[in-house]
Amino acid sequence: MGIYTGAKVYFVHEGYQGLVDGGDNIKLATWESVSMMLHLGGTVIGSARCMDFKEKWGRLKAACNLVKLGITNLCVIGGDGSLTGANQFRTEWSELLADLTKGGKISAEEANRSSHLNIVGMVGSIDNDFCGTDMTIGTDSALHRIIEVVDAITTTAQSHQRTFILEVMGRHCGYLALVTALACGADWVFIPEMPPEENWEEHLCKRLIAQRGRGSRLNVIILAEGAQDRNQKPITCDQVKNLVSKKLGFDTRSTILGHVQRGGTPSAFDRILGSRMGVEAVMALLEATPETPACVVSLSGNMAVRLPLMECVQVTKDVTVAMTEGRFEDAVKLRGKSFQNNWDTYKMLAHSNINIAIINVGAPCAGMNAAVRAAVRVGIIQGHQMLAVHDGFDGLANGQIEPIIWAQVDISTEHTHHYVVPQGLPDHAYLGGLELVTAREMYEELCIPMVVIPATVSNNVPGSDFSIGADTALNTITMTCDRIKQSAAGTKRRVFIIETMGGYCGYLATMAGLSSGADDAYIYEEPFHIRDLELNVEHLIEKMKTSVKRGLILRNSNANENYTTQFLYNLYSEEGKGTFDCRMNVLGHMQQGGTPSPFDRNFGTKMGSKSVLWLTNKLKECYRHGRIFANMPDSACVLGMKKRSLVFQPLASLKDDTDFEHRIPKTEWWLRLRPILKILAKYDTVEMDTSEVAAMEHVIKKTDLSVESV
């Protein structure tokens, strides 16, 4: 992005140590030097702890190195310590320049040219321990590693009826432990922000016994490495293991994951998050003035935001103070709305008049089970009778309805005279929901509260920026693209044409293009013509003259009736003769299968629980004279994520924003990211909409009870 704007971009190798040492540690970055690296974990430019930078003489050397190269904008990726150091560096910049000038290290002219240093931060931390941001770079990938291990462990634990204790990273923050517990349905979680109550040992044993009594063949306990009791004494894996095995006699195993959580290939979410934040960081630096405070760019819900760096650092420190002082409720609140919602959801699901039916509609997708599990358990907790409707609307019509109990959703469940929660594709669940609402005029039995949970790999449900299942499909496509590109490692000059699912919705093709470094992604929403194809071929021919000799083109399945995937393959093969050869892959239904990603499990859990709580409140509103009667528009809603909040929107209100012929929303937020795909692929002329520039926000909690941060 920096090169695209015409700026010179430098790598600083080995973190602040490289900044202090200078020389070959600060190198000019080129387009090719950041190619073919999206799939790599860690950082290709290295990172190191630096004691020198904590001393003024070290910062003087760093300032001198920057001034000599004419660098006046610094993007720092790290945790609160790194970002605090960056802010101090910026604050004393004028003083450093004066000392360097006085000592003859730089000239007055050089000092004048570099009179101000702009700083922008991006938070890279698997612990997700930086306040003010929903998700830090690296957290989602760490969750992928953890969930892979949990899934592997629970298989054997079920076979042998064991209790497993898993310790995950998080010395001062319990985010990884908490989301892991939500995603795998753990029986107990220990996090530093909210230590267990007194006599927790007795409560834990009762919980495990109760779970076995419900028919569960295993117990899972998740422990953050910084777990402590109310007296701030550490709670360890061995301590919990000894308690369970000696007091209950359960066969118990413990596993400490350690640094395996830091490694591996980045998830699709982290690749897109890093890409979006990198672009936003450059925009923030270019717009910065001497009066602008140093900021952190991050993601809140689905929105790029800029936050005052030191406000975030201060709130992060306040969490530690709150935990030290025993103000644990405050510690959870200071972590932010997202963390608090995760904790509230976990507490509700961890505990053990009216009928509520759950029905899966349309094609299956990863994460549906998490939504079903949460809905069933929250419903049971609320005192409702939960019913499962088998085989979608056909099963509803044919009476394939039976009660579903707590134990049936212990690990996962796939699955009316009463309250319906349709899930699935918009041409089934959303349209089906609309038909049910319309039929209320003829059938009073349908005058009941209904909520639709978006669940489709295509992510094309009106009223929601994200659907359950889309993240898992996106990860599948991204990892497949990685492998396909790696298959050509020993082959020079090859272009891959890959077809993704999505119907007429180009979400998967576009976001997979961003996460896998594609040269273009053809979609229905953005019409393309023969001249566009010609420009793409010319672009790839020029690319093959560089050190990067591989190309990747994605095409959404219904992108164009005539320019099919086979047509594109034939065109590129013909026009690329003598320069590159082509291969074609249609990914097909592999995108719908696989193990749900941590995001989809967590998202599905929240959606399922929030839906049932909403239904419970609606039932109270609609109860009149001994019966339920709900015929108002707001009694049949889609629960969707809009920007940074989960909101309920009446089904009828979304009709105007729906293209019924092509089964897509008329407004799709991710289309604004398409120019980034072209910019990162090095196209020369790209128009980028900057009308929605992220404004600086303060880390002040808003008390709006009508919306909820995801």
Automatic annotation (TrEMBL):
Its cofactor is Mg(2+). It catalyses: beta-D-fructose 6-phosphate + ATP = beta-D-fructose 1,6-bisphosphate + ADP + H(+). It comes from the Eukaryota. GO terms for molecular function: 6-phosphofructokinase activity; AMP binding; ATP binding; fructose-6-phosphate binding; identical protein binding; metal ion binding; monosaccharide binding. PROSITE patterns: PHOSPHOFRUCTOKINASE (PS00433). One of its GO terms (biological process) is fructose 1,6-bisphosphate metabolic process. Pathway: Carbohydrate degradation; glycolysis; D-glyceraldehyde 3-phosphate and glycerone phosphate from D-glucose: step 3/4. Keywords: Allosteric enzyme, ATP-binding, Cytoplasm, Glycolysis, Kinase, Magnesium, Metal-binding, Nucleotide-binding, Transferase. This is Phosphofructokinase, muscle b.
